[in-house]
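Hi there,

I know you've been waiting on this one. I reran it after we fixed the sequence typo, so this is the corrected version. Both the input and the resulting structure follow.
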Amino acid sequence: MDAPTGKVPAPRGRGDVGPSWLWRSLAALGVLVSAVVHLVLWTRGYDDIDLVGPLFLVNAAGGVVLATLMLTWRHWLPLVGGILFGAVTLLAFITSATSDLLGISPEVIGVNELVAAAAELVAVVASTVALVREQAR
């Protein structure tokens, strides 16, 4: 018998290190950076704000778990989580930066907050690209 002609599909699984894996890794990094910034801000006084303090701690813990899942579970669900995590957190930041949301005044925006916002934007974009690339296979 002759060998089949045509393209042989690339193997899937943990050994598959391609553009999709790089996008997934970048998305996980964005989620993780946002989580770390929220933990830092929580330790620097945000823990004293009634509703926001616990939410920052939940964001930090959830971000670490989500980033881990994005790298270890090759499923579409963590990528959707990355999109939602980044979008909701970024929306909350924009709302707090333009209004007096939940007791956070807009004038407290500094480098940490801008780093988190950039990381959340990266999480949304990279998660979306990874999801589209992985679903196209």
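Quick highlight: The chain has a mean pLDDT of 86.

Best,
R. S.
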